[in-house]
Amino acid sequence: MNDTVIELKGLTKRYGYGDTESFALKDFDLTVKRGEFIMIMGPSGCGKTTLLNIIGLLDRATSGEYKLNGENAANISAARQARLRAKKIGFIFQNFNLIEDLPIIENVALPLVYTQTPRVARLKQASSALSRFHLQEREYYLPSQLSGGQQQRVAIARAIVSDPEIILADEPTGNLDSRSSHIVMEELKAIHEEGNTIIMVTHNPALTTYATRVINMLDGQIDTDIKTVADHKLPKPVETRKKRKGRSR
Ligand SMILES: Nc1ncnc2c1ncn2[C@@H]1O[C@H](COP(=O)(O)OP(=O)(O)O)[C@@H](O)[C@H]1O
Ligand SMILES: [Mg+2]
Question: What CATH number matches the domain at 36-59+78-248, 2.40.50.100, 3.40.50.300, 1.50.10.20, 3.30.70.100?
Answer without folding.
Answer: 3.40.50.300
